[in-house]
Amino acid sequence: MIKGFKEFILRGNVIDLAVAVVIGAAFTAIVNVIVEQLINPLIGLLFNAESLSTALVVTVGSASFGFGAIIAAVINFLAVAAVVYFAFIFPMNKFKERAEAKKGTPEEEPAAATEAELLVEIRDLLASRRSV
Description:
- By secondary structure, the chain is mainly α.
- The protein has one domain (2-104): Large-conductance mechanosensitive channel, MscL, domain 1 (Non-ribosomal Peptide Synthetase Peptidyl Carrier Protein, Chain A, Orthogonal Bundle), CATH 1.10.1200.120.
- The protein has four helices and two strands; from the N terminus they run H-H-E-E-H-H.
- The chain has a two-stranded antiparallel ribbon.
- Helix 2 (12-46) crosses helix 3.
- It is elongated.
C-alpha cells in the first residue's frame, strides 16, 4: 500500500499539477490585487462609488443586489484568464511550433496495402508459380 502511494506521488503528472496550482495561486493573487486596487477603483469613478464592488447596488425592499460585485468578479476572471493565456499558453504554443519547425516535416510512410491489393498480389504470385 505504501509502495503504491509512493508511485502515485512521484508520477510526473501529480508533480506538474502541484506546480500548476502553486503558480496559479501566485498569479491569481497578483491579478486580484491589480483588479481590486486599479481596475475596480477606476470603474468605480465612473459610477461615483468607492470601487466597482460597491457600485450598481440595487435595493428592493430588504434585499440588495450587488451587480457591481458580479461585474468585478467577471473582470477578475477575465484578467486571470488573460494572464494565464499570455504568460503560459501563448508562449508554450510558440515554443512547440518552433520545435516542430526545427524537426522538419516527417517523411510520409507509404500507405499500407489494402486487403484487395494483397489478394491480387497473392493471386499473381500463385499464377506465376503454376506457369513455371
